Structure formats: structure tokens, C-alpha cells
Amino acid sequence: MRACERTLREDGSELANVLVTIIKMYEVMVTQVERIRQRIALKRKRKDIQDEWKFAAQAVDRFCLIIFTIVFIICCSIFVFIPPIKILD
């Protein structure tokens, strides 16, 4: 690209100036597309990390639900199956 630009500048014609301008615009577009690609890759990486954390949170939540259910059933069973103690006789 630089060699083409140098050759065209040496020519000095109006067409050469237009072509140099087009080359510069192309370079700017390439850099902008690269920036967009990098931002998309960064967003994708962040999304993957976020999904992993969501999965971990779901696993912990499920584990806590199971523990709560077991404790709740045990406590309810204790209250239902153990007869009340008569304190006043």
C-alpha cells in the first residue's frame, strides 16, 4: 500500500491524488473494521464469562434448594410424628 502511494505521489496527476485519497480512506476503513472486530470479540468473551457465572449460580441455587427442602421435610416430620410433651400434669 505504501509503495503504491509513493508511486502515485511521484506521478502528481489529479487521478493519482484521487487514488491516494482512496487508498487512505481504505486504510481508515480497515482500521475501523479491525476495531469493530476487536469489540465484538471482547463482547463475546464477556458474554461467555457471564454465562459461566450464571451456570455456577444456578448450580449453587439448586444445591441450596435441595438442602432447604431436606431440612424442611425433616423439621415438619419431627413436628408431625413426635407427640407433644405434657408439661402441666
UniProtKB/TrEMBL annotation:
Residue ranges annotated for the Neurotransmitter-gated ion-channel transmembrane domain, each copy included: 20-76
Entry-linked InterPro entries: Neuro-gated_channel_TM_sf, Neuro_actylchol_rec, Neurotrans-gated_channel_TM
Pfam family name, one: Neur_chan_memb
Alphabetical keyword list: Membrane, Transmembrane, Transmembrane helix
Keyword Transmembrane: yes
Gene Ontology CC entries for this record: membrane
Gene3D superfamilies listed in its UniProt record: Neurotransmitter-gated ion-channel transmembrane domain
GO biological process assignments: monoatomic ion transport
Transmembrane segments: 63-82
Keyword Transmembrane helix recorded: yes
Protein name, per record: Neurotransmitter-gated ion-channel transmembrane domain-containing protein
Record organism: Caenorhabditis briggsae
